[in-house]
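Fold it.
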Amino acid sequence: MSLAAGRASGARREGPRADSAALAEPLSLSPSAARVEALDAKLRVRLAESLDYLGSHIAGNPGAGGQQLGERLGKRLDKRLGEIARTARSRPISAWTFCLYAKLVAALADDAPRDVAAIIDAAGRAAALPAAEGMIAFGAGHPDFWWSHFSLLLDTDRARPFRLHEPAADAFRAGADDLRAGLALMRRADRAFHDEVAALLRTIVLGSPAEPGMAFDGASTFFLWGATLLNADARRSAVEAAELLVHESGHLLLFALSSPSALTRNSGEERHASPLRRDPRPIDGIFHAGFVATRVHLAMTRLLGSGRLGADERKAAGRAQAVNASAARDALALLQRRAEPTATGANILAALAAYWAAPGGA
């Protein structure tokens, strides 16, 4: 197996395949913490398999890393990667492990890779961390180069970069309080959705953008499985916080559901108007918009049906329900016209279409 194949294994293609029976089974959009636990286990196995491959590559190529590692160090790093892989197979792990794995893959793919040993040692430290860190401030508690790669993975819009920095103490406290209020609302009114969100977002990073008032709410990536980034400077009601948490956790859920394969066969060069973004997006971005907006609509519908919301909360949930219904329907219509779905994508698309065709999807 070539290094290029090894890179693909960690990102999307290698590792356990989606089995045909699972693809044929209708996808439920209802919240399920048990499903998240099963997806987490599959992703950790795939990560472990890729780490094993990278370890054998390094051990077999003592010059890997551009540092003339030598046979002795190459074997030590192979052993270290094997230890991380065993941890990944045995229990849930920190999102930092996925983050630093992505940094390692990028380093090994570089024409003149550097710092391979340091990255592997850092990944080992990350794997020893608790799987959940709760709410933490960007830039705090971890080495700078960890945060640097965290930013690289999430701050991807060159036209509107976040340029994240650590939030002021009062902004962090207020942001965390808002999110706790959103979680408390879900726990009170919809325990199933609360438990799924908590399982998907084990670590919530609150960061401040460089420019006050920047239109940035949250961001998530496959390479930070278990974590999300939220804007610490935005103030949110409990319903708005719940909406955001469901939205970002929905992105992670779709990343996991689609990890065995791409969602579509469309060209990555295509761009389409997004119902949730001002800038044109690739078709996978439209897929994500439709999926997360549908899930937010479902969450708001369930909250409204719980009988546990106050008058102001009902109004806010009704507004969020209507906005996300419009966005989801627009995305679905575009996907049905333009998407060329894979088997995985077709299964998810069918679930979205069925949801909006049902009476409750009004």
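The radius of gyration is 21 Å.
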